[in-house]
Design brief:
Elements: H1 12-17, E1 25-28, E2 32-36, E3 46-50, H2 63-84, E4 88-92, E5 108-113, H3 129-144
Antiparallel strand pairs: 1-2, 2-3, 3-5, 4-5
Helix pairs in contact: 2-3
The protein binds guanosine-5'-monophosphate (5GP).
Length: 145
């Protein structure tokens, strides 16, 4: 499965959206869901996904849903920067396996970058659940303030 193909409704993010798989949820409305990446490449690595669009990548989503997605990406990026105070932040998105995509439901990565820290390997090391829960609580509190 790569740049062109059929949407697989059993992909992990579709399962998370349907509530069939767990996530460390940060934000949800009727169109968009945001949660922590469980294989984070840096502290605070988040994912933002469209809920209503069965889009594997940016080529397949309509402009309205894309705009709603990006509005949440910007909002969550601000929260991450305010709370975690990284030196920089990457907002990234991959289309097709050769571009680095491993889950074929469109998603935006928000990856805080800290001075002197190299990026972890993509989708490789699972974070400690307690640390993820603690980070989730911290970000939720910041969002509520
Ligand atoms: P992609 O490689 O498609 O751009 O990104 C997929 C992302 O999903 C990776 O960063 C990977 O760590 C993350 N990921 C894979 N499986 C799960 C999961 O079950 N839960 C969460 N929260 N993230 C996942």
């Amino acid at each position: 499965m790569s740049l062109h193909g059929t949407y697989d409704a059993q992909n992990i993010f579709a399962q998370i959206i349907r509530g069939e798989a767990p996530c460390y949820k940060l934000y949800e409305d009727e169109d968009v869901l945001a949660f922590l990446d469980v294989f984070p490449q840096s502290y605070g690595h988040c994912l933002v996904v469209p809920k209503r669009a069965a889009a594997r990548n940016i080529l397949e989503i309509d402009a309205d849903n894309l705009a709603k997605l990006m509005a949440v990406v910007q909002r969550l990026t601000r929260v991450l920067v305010d709370e975690l105070e990284p030196a920089g932040v990457q907002v990234a998105q991959f289309n097709g396996a050769p571009a680095g995509q491993t889950v074929f439901h469109l998603h935006m990565h928000i990856v805080p970058r800290y001075a002197g820290e190299t990026l972890g390997v993509h989708a490789s090391v699972k974070a400690d659940p307690a640390a993820l829960a603690q980070l989730q609580a911290r970000l939720l509190q910041r969002m509520a303030s």
